Amino acid sequence: MTDAEFQFEPLDDSLWSLGVYDAHCHPTDTMDVVPEIPKRRMRVLTIMATKASDQELVAQVAREYGVDRNSNDGDNTAVSCRVVPSFGWHPWFSHLLFDDMKGESNGDAKALKIDHYTSVLTNEPTEEFISTLPDPKPLSQFIAETRKYLEEFPSALVGEVGLDRFFRLPNIEAGPDDKHLSPHRVNLDHQKRVLEEQLRLAGEMKRAVSVHGVGAHGVLYDSFAYLFKGYEKEVRSKRTQKRGPYDFEGDESDEEERGPKPFPPRICLHSFSAPPDFIKTWLHPKLPAEIYFSFSHAINVGYGYEKFPDMLRLVPKDKLLVESDLHIASIEMENHLSAIVRKVGHDKEWELDEVIKQVGKNWKKFVYGDATTAA
């Protein structure tokens, strides 16, 4: 079966009724179609915020269509699609935050703006280019706002966060009809700072995160490893195993004494596209967080990534998620979920109902941890 056939063969109603969970999507990018969400056949959409303008949009959609963990919104009798919100700042927009938590200060607004963009953008931008950009927002303010959203939505994730080595800012000076990109990227050091503070917040609030990684797979892993330091699990030899292959360093009382961990308990590497060997790195038993791998038809199959079957073989069945990564809550979203479910079933030689049931179980564990829920 070709990839094109995967894309256009829909799932049967009986399969949709098992509960298909979209682990990562952006329906608030097309708000006029948001009212279509209840009509979609997915059980739950995990919807991402990425920048200043869509944090409140995601919250609004969650207030209207959010999963109520104390109701039966997500059980097998559900007739409408629901959402779980995620609040975060995407690396593509990380230049729009200035680091007042460890770096830059609140000085003269104009000077701060020029100094900020000059320091965080590559290929030193001109004052003319900087004038097309908005005044940067304090990182501390964004973190405080995100904390409030996480308090409002107890099931919410932190996301979409991450690193991107290749993204270039659009050349706004060229005019609205010109799609030419500027030579400017956001330097990785600044991206890492924005990512770190969001990961620390996720650790404080004990929330899962959805992570973007493009062209910086080693740096991304190192950014997490920096926060994991001192919390690694002790990998025990087979001869000395008593309570499994590894133990956590310390116990609950030790955690209370040390305070919240500076990293999220559960991590989803969304539309994962790193070389397959990175899967082994992320699955090392010493890592003190649960790592999940999510795949989309748009990225992992649509780009013709030849190593996708090899990647799937390396991902444990209980760490596998699927997503659409689409920006519109249309029938196309259903088609993309159908396509990736079929592709996973084909490459792993699983029946489709097995794929859906396993991925649904994994999604609940990723979002809610050990807590049980009807979603």
Q: What structural class is derived from the secondary structure elements?
A: alpha/beta
Q: Roughly what is the average pLDDT, rounded to an integer? A: 89
What is the CATH superfamily?
Answer: Metal-dependent hydrolases
Runs with pLDDT <50, length 5+?
72-77
Radius of gyration: 21 Å
Biased composition (Acidic residues): 248-257
Protein name: Cut9 interacting protein Scn1
Region (Disordered): 239-262
Organism: Orbilia ellipsospora
Could you explain the architecture of this structure?
The protein has helices at 3-8, 13-16, 55-65, 109-120, 127-131, 139-152, 188-205, 217-228, 252-258, 277-282, 297-301, 308-314, 331-348, 352-368, and strands at residues 21-25, 44-48, 82-87, 97-98, 137-138, 157-164, 209-214, 234-235, 246-247, 266-269, 290-296, 320-323. It has 375 residues and is of the alpha/beta class. The chain has a single domain (3-368), classed as TIM Barrel. The strands form 3 sheets. The chain has an 8-stranded parallel sheet, sandwiched between helices. A two-stranded parallel sheet has the order 4-5. It has a two-stranded antiparallel sheet with strand order 8-9. The longest helix is centred in the middle third of the chain and has 18 residues, at 188-205. It is globular. Residues 72-77 have low confidence and may be disordered. InterPro entries: Metal_Hydrolase (IPR032466), Metallo-hydrolase/TatD-type (IPR053044), TatD-like (IPR001130). It comes from Orbilia ellipsospora. Residues 248-257 have a biased composition (Acidic residues). This is Cut9 interacting protein Scn1.
